[in-house]
Amino acid sequence: MEPILIEETPSKVTVKYDSVAVDLPESIREQHEKFWNDHIKINPHLRNGEVFTITQIKNTAKELQVTVAKTDYKHYLYTIRHKDCAFPCKVIFTCVAVITSDNYIAFGRMNDHTSTPGRLQFTGGGLDETDLNGSVFDLKKSIGKELEEEMGLQIESSYVKSFAPRFLKSKGTYDFWAVMFELRVDFTSNELRVMFDKHNRRLIEKGEQPEFEEFVFVLLEKAHVLDFIENDHSLKEDYLDPILMKYVRN
């Protein structure tokens, strides 16, 4: 595993769709199928669906161009459960650091029905075909959809103070790539927590299962960030601690 790399987002990021699906060897597909069948006995809420894996990357100081092709969630799940596996699924996703008016950063704890129960991570998710504009993925639309689904926030609302891509994450545990947005809102951490709790209750009343069971708030001051990193031993996305340090260093 290479150390995680977090850089400022280049001025242009383009993710293109290659309509030719990934062609995996039959023996590899059999491994994925066996693992999937075993895993859904443990977590029957999992659903197989489309996932896009990176097939080509061109990265310069001014522009990132990524090409992806279609595979499935079985491929992705097998990859994150088997480090250094053959034919890994290498995804690019969007996520967002939500920062409150009293300078707290918010991230969620994944719910029990998800593939990574208890993991701390930013709001975000993988790309899907509804994000396509022709053959190019609309990254702003992708993360806007995740914000509305997971937190009940809308990027076009009056409470949004600023919203833009901020960081680009690569390398790390699985060499997944992420375009990391920053959303600053005109809510305090307490107000945002109340909004999130109401959003989750609405989802449950509709018979839906929230992605996050709770939101965690960390004050963006060095002492508070260091205390969180040293003393919170929850499972975390590999980018979380480095991003927190990036904010307090800046």
Automatic annotation (TrEMBL):
PROSITE patterns: NUDIX (PS51462)
InterPro entries per the UniProt record, alphabetical: NUDIX_hydrolase-like_dom_sf, NUDIX_hydrolase_dom
Domain spans labelled Nudix hydrolase: 88-241
Position of the signal peptide: none
Coiled coil feature spans: none
Name under which the protein is recorded: Nudix hydrolase domain-containing protein
Species this chain originates from: Psychrobacillus lasiicapitis
Organism lineage: Bacteria, Bacillati, Bacillota, Bacilli, Bacillales
